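pinning this so it doesn't scroll away 📌
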Amino acid sequence: MRRHRTVDGPQGPLLSINGRELLNFCSNDYLGLAGHPELKAALKEGVERYGVGAGASRLVCGHTSAHARLEERLAQFTQRERALVFSTGYMANLALLNTFSGRSGVIIGDRMNHASLIDAALLAGASLRRYQHADPRSLQGLLEKTASARNRLVVTESVFSMDGDIAPLPEIAGICRKAEVPLLVDDAHGFGVLGKNGGGALEHFGLDMQTVPLMMATFGKALGAFGAFIAGAAELIECLIQSGRSYIYTTALPPALAEAASCALDLVVRERWRAEQLHKLVARFRREALQLDLPVTDSVTPIQPLRIGDPRRAVELSDALFEKGIFITAIRPPTVPKNTARLRISLTAAHTEEQVDHLLSVLSDLF
């Protein structure tokens, strides 16, 4: 059974849980921005100006200048024509797949795609076909088999949330373009971390809007805030505004949170040392983990899973780490496939080299 661990205080490399201070290695706060003083100030100022709740959906009276400014910034930052803000990444993916597919459509996705993409495809009523994980040839085969389908869409994560590996997006995009099938990329775990300016996996690979018409990313990971957005061609964003049910029929993201997300975007651009520090820590962890013969994967992102296999063993190791003052959650089925339970280690720019070294030392003793 899964259980809650109650945190008392802000996110950071140290967490207070049940009166104990633990080293936190399972947060998606990759750039260490969740407790940034400028972010907190932006949120407070937003509350003073707009209050707490948005009051209604965006198309009723919940659309504020805070939402408009954030969307303009996001479109400029991602070099897309327009952007649209959602309350969560889950809701954004629901809107995308329900709007651009349908009961007569075929959604072709990576076998390891996030649950929100799978659920969205099922709720859209489309035929869901899944290609082998990060395998362009498998995708090519499915596109050939579904060539007669009227309405097709290919979807993939950029950085896979449980394995940390990066999808071969240039190859996938090339195959989709040749087949004239639109590609949607969920960049939740790449945005803010990858790319010269933090633009994510698409910037990292140099993929423009013509190559990848639609992208989704979230504010609750590298940006340390809350919410999500979709960016793409102006007419596609307009389609989402008019037809995206999880956009239309829900109360708008609180405008104060939109202000916080705008501030976070400024910090991503201004404080690039955070991403540089993060990548240095990732390289340090991987180098030492390989020398210690720990069961690391090929991930070069902040997500560094240790494959355990047996779920009971994964939970035992997580509990042992907890007793030693380190918080790492055991991830097991159905979140991941059978026999692939793991400790999902997440590194952040707020960690120190000493903290990473301490983690490695404890892991060495346990393994």
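📌 and the second one:
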Amino acid sequence: MQQIEPGIYYEDAYHGVTLGALIFNHGTVMIDAPLRPDDARSWRAALINMGGSTNRILINLDAHPDRTLGARALDCPIVAHEKTAQVFHDRPTIFKGQTSESGAEWEINNEMVGTRWSPPDITFSDSMYFHWGKPEVILEHHPGPTQGSVWAIIPEGKVVFVGDTIIADQPPFLAQSDLHAWIESLDVLLSTYREFLIISARSGPVGSDEVRTQQRYLKKIVQGLERLAKRNAFPEMTEGLIANLLKDFSLTNMQRERYAQRLRYGLYHYYTHHYHPIEETNPEE
């Protein structure tokens, strides 16, 4: 566990997600959950050992299974955006793990099948404020990676947890995204939070260079998809974009295969939804 400021921590030791924790006088605010329930219980115990209170609350920065499957084991109320709550409403009660391969972390953790979802208990639309003793925590809606993506902002500590808004070392998840809104959210990050420490939910601390790189990468994806749309290409043609989009990363062979599948799945569903509507089931990453 790494301390950023007194009472403000991040943890990148768990598989597939970088977590946040805010240990305050009146309780502990947890940001995202470890993927595996055993890891979630370990995380909960670690926070108590650090002086965290049994009065705790969990913030889901979005609905991605990698950061929400372990939420039940944290045994506390959950806060999320109202559009994230709608995703849980549309899911079956128990996670069955049935999906096309999306390149997500849960897909290499078979023990997750059969996990019972924990939908949010508290939702908001634009912003929400926590006052559990200093410093103040603000939750803000910043769509992009998903319609319900939010940031957890601690102005006094100049720290912002941004979920999947930045993924510095791997391709992003695209199936549930809005690329134009995502690019606009990155503009906000560069203008309003340029002096803040930015914590990515998969890459840990990142800086302005990574934000700009993410923005250029998303614009590259938009350009590729729009070229296909002008030709009225079928969704299967998005396969041709993958090789060029993987060139931006230094990857092992195993990573290259998994991330190619992530792009294959995400590009197909994004293109289908935004440019070439056909009957399809709601994608889940």
